[in-house]
Amino acid sequence: MNLLFAWRYFKSKKSTNAINLIAWISVIAIGVGAAALILVLSVFNGFEGLVKGLYADFYADVRIAPATGKFIQINTALWQSIQSTKGLQAMSGVVEEKAVLTNGDCSSIVYIRGVDSQYTAVSRLSTHIRRGKFALGTAEQPSLVVGVGIENAACLEVERPAGPVTLYLPNRQSNNFASGDALNAYNATAVGAFMVQQDFDNKYAFSNIAFMRFMLGLDADQYSAIDIRAGANADQVKKDLQAKLGKSFLVQTRYEQNQSLYTVMQIEKWVIYGILSLILVVAAFNMIGALTMLVLEKQKDISVLQAMGASQQRIQGIFISEGLLLAGLGGGAGMLLAAIVCWIQIKFELIKLGGNTFVIDYYPVKMLAADFLLVGGTVFLIALVAAYLPSKKASLQAFSLKS
């Protein structure tokens, strides 16, 4: 019944055109605010999904690392015990160290990650090769797969290498790091360049684990980490491995390895939501003005309803319903428009990113039902608060039928 009255008041002709104008302005403002929220949140979801996908291609589902120090010791029995963990799909040993890569007059500081032959079953890095190939060589003839940032910094041409490059790694047997034997040097050939994400492209290079063990003087059962593919079972595998290995090992899922990144991304999303919600708050002031003028316009109607026995709650409910109607029309139209725009972008990729520095050239979009529910709830709450004061004023109006 309240909604029926609200609908009739919305459609009926007013004595002053300004009332209709302000009402439509409030509807449009709410629509713009709702559409902006959905569009921005959907684009943010698209970028978030893209970044998570890139990190998923680089970081393992689960990683076993030393709780203290730089290396862990995994003998054959322990390796087999880890490998038998339920839900574990593949595992690969990793030895990582910071190094200096020189090529003539060019040089770059890199993190060399030595991996074994199972690494491609754990990581999808090999799918991101932009030039050359994913080949790691042997301990005697090591090959390098470098990020495109390192490729540029070290003046490399991986498809037409002019000659070997030199790697300088710390000599763990040296007692004096200021002496000439503080670093071990060895030649390697850069045969491939990958492009995943700028943080990785400017930092990492890959070679074989045997070469890294030789350069660092490590035993055959020493590792910097064990990378594991577990898919949807990552959380359970992590719990089982931590219980099995004890406190001397640190077992982390991909999200725990990059906890600060994912936390910042969530905070950014809520900050964006809060800022764009201010558009709806501004629209609420237009709604307050429209409802206040409508109350003045319908004073006689209110008196008639009071004479017919309508309670204060009934009259207040009518004008609250009017506010919710305005918000519903604006919010519904805005979300529908945003959904159409998002679908067009997903389907045709019309809006492009500027420059050529990212892995895609268009704005990624991902619509989530939770965002539509969040925006719809926000519109409802703001409309309810905005409609309360004018509706309260209408319910307290003195009963009078005098002309």
How is this structure best described in words?
The protein is of the alpha+beta class and about 400 residues long. The chain folds into 2 domains: about 1-55 and about 260-395, no CATH class; about 60-255, no CATH class. It is about 50% helix and about 20% strand. The protein has a 6-stranded mixed β-barrel with strand order 3-4-9-6-8-7. Strands 2-10 form a two-stranded antiparallel ribbon. Helix 2 (about 15-60) runs antiparallel to helix 10 (about 260-295), helix 2 (about 15-60) runs antiparallel to helix 13 and helix 12 packs antiparallel against helix 13 (about 370-395). The two termini are about 25 Å apart. The model has no long low-confidence stretch (mean pLDDT about 90).
Overall pLDDT = 91
The residue ranges in which pLDDT falls below 50 over 5 or more consecutive positions are: none
First-to-last CA distance: 27 Å
Helix fraction, binned, reads 40-55%
Tally of strands: 12
As laid out across the biggest beta sheet, the strand order is: 3-4-9-6-8-7
Structural Rg: 32 Å
Helix count from the secondary structure assignment: 13
What can be said about the biggest beta sheet?
A: 6 strands, mixed, barrel
The number of distinct structural domains comes to 2
> What is the element string, with H for helices and E for strands?
HHEEHEEHEEHEEHEHEEHEHHHHH
The secondary-structure class comes to alpha+beta
Relative strand content:
15-25%
Global outline? elongated
